[in-house]
Amino acid sequence: KQRARLGCPAEERSFAQTIVIDLELRINAAPSLVSDKLTDTVDYCHVVTTIERMCRECEWQLVEKMCADIGQEVLAQSKCVETVKVSICKNTLANADVVRATVLISA
User: Fold this and answer.
1) Res 89: pLDDT
2) Is the distance from CB of 6 to CB of 90 less than 8 angstroms?
3) The whole model's pTM is what?
4) Max CA-CA distance within the chain?
5) What is the DSSP code (8-state) at residue 40?
6) Exposed e or buried b for every residue in 78-98, given b needs 16+ CB within 10 A?
7) Is the CB of residue 47 less than 8 Å from the CB of residue 105?
8) Helix, strand and coil percent figures for the chain, each rounded to 5
């Protein structure tokens, strides 16, 4: 869970709202399976701190754009990441439990 400024109307972006971000990474794990070294795989702590920073510093109108920006950033961090699937849920609509968008980004 994170807090981010996200929404089409400016009023909705005027405050940070709680969202849920799910990441699914497809990676080439072969080098890390042999070496057992963090430098040969994804540094998940770095991924989390990057997402936290983005949520603090950025704002988005579209949940799809936020998914894409996070996906591109994760791809750029590690050469072993082949595909990033980013889903974001927010619950701002009165007649729906949540709104979820999912974007798939490939290297």
Assistant:
1) 94
2) yes
3) 0.90
4) 51
5) G
6) bebbeebbbbbbbeeeeeeee
7) no
8) 40, 35, 25
